[in-house]
Amino acid sequence: MIKVAVCGAYGKMGQEVCLAVENAGDMELAAKIDIQGDAYRTIEEAKKSVDFDVLVDFTQPKSIYENALYCLNNGIKVVIGTTGLKDDEIANLKSLSEKNMTGCLIAPNFSTGAVLMMMFSQMASKYFDNAEIIELHHNQKKDAPSGTAIKTALMMSQAKESFKKGNCPETETVKGSRGGTSYSDIQIHSVRMPGFMASQEVIFGSAGQTFKIRHDSTDRKCYMDGVLLAVRHVIKENDFVYGLENLLK
């Protein structure tokens, strides 16, 4: 049995992860970690009391990096679903994971459909010179743009240096109206509004046509197969992975 600890266990995603682990035939929910309820308050406190093989983290952007550092420095394999990590932080975690030979999987999105959306966008990037991303989330999401949008732009940038071919010089009369500029000049627009859970649309354009790839999440259960896949992977392979697409190829 794979013994799993869940950090952020009483959050909306954390509760779903706990339920998924409990229902998985090859896993055991060894510890709940959270600042509320009857959970352990810290990873360190949990590790002193119970034994677990891997930690799944769905907490807050402000705490995820320190949580990951603690895990990798103490031989705890970790699956990270919290978004907000910076490029240099991801690079540092990769180095630490490899140095300490402790598995670490970071995924901006665990939904199979969302991962396919990112992969298809990367494929389409070869055939279009212009593209922008619109991501829409509930108004309790703290980081913007979403990790999924950033990862999508990164994957698209591997196909092309710039996605602003033929654009005229721009002047914003309202600051921020063109969104944020990401990899390869891809503009990312973030919407935060009640009524949404998680959606993303990638829009490609060329002379006489547009092409859109969109994914909508309507229930957090859509992420659970990906989370369980990630847990099984870090246990078996004990390597560093950034992006669930690497497990679907």
Report on this model:
- This protein has 249 residues and is α/β, with parallel strands linked by helices.
- It folds into 2 domains: 2-106 and 220-248, NAD(P)-binding Rossmann-like Domain (Rossmann fold, 3-Layer(aba) Sandwich), CATH 3.40.50.720; 112-217, 2-Layer Sandwich (Dihydrodipicolinate Reductase, domain 2), CATH 3.30.360.10.
- The protein is 35% helix and 24% strand.
- The protein contains 8 helices and 11 strands.
- It has helices spanning 12-23, 43-49, 61-73, 87-100, 112-124, 147-157, 224-237, 245-248, and strands at residues 2-7, 27-33, 54-57, 77-80, 104-106, 130-137, 180-181, 187-192, 198-206, 209-217, 240-242.
- The strands form 2 sheets. The protein has a 6-stranded parallel beta sheet with strand order 2-1-3-4-5-11, sandwiched between helices. It has a 5-stranded mixed beta sheet with strand order 7-8-6-9-10, covered by helices on one side.
- Helix 4 (87-100) links the parallel strand 4 and strand 5 (104-106).
- Helix 1 (12-23) crosses helix 7 (224-237).
- The longest helix is centred in the middle third of the chain and has 14 residues, at 87-100.
- The model has no long low-confidence stretch (mean pLDDT 95).
Provide the number of structural domains: 2
Specify the CATH architecture of the largest domain.
3-Layer(aba) Sandwich
The succession of helices and strands, N to C, reads: EHEHEHEHEHEHEEEEHEH
Percent of residues in helical segments?
25-40%
* Estimated radius of gyration: 19 Å
CATH class of the largest domain: Alpha Beta
CATH superfamily of the largest domain: NAD(P)-binding Rossmann-like Domain
Described by strand count, sense and barrel closure, the largest sheet is:
6 strands, parallel
Helix-strand category: alpha/beta
Distance between the termini: 26 Å
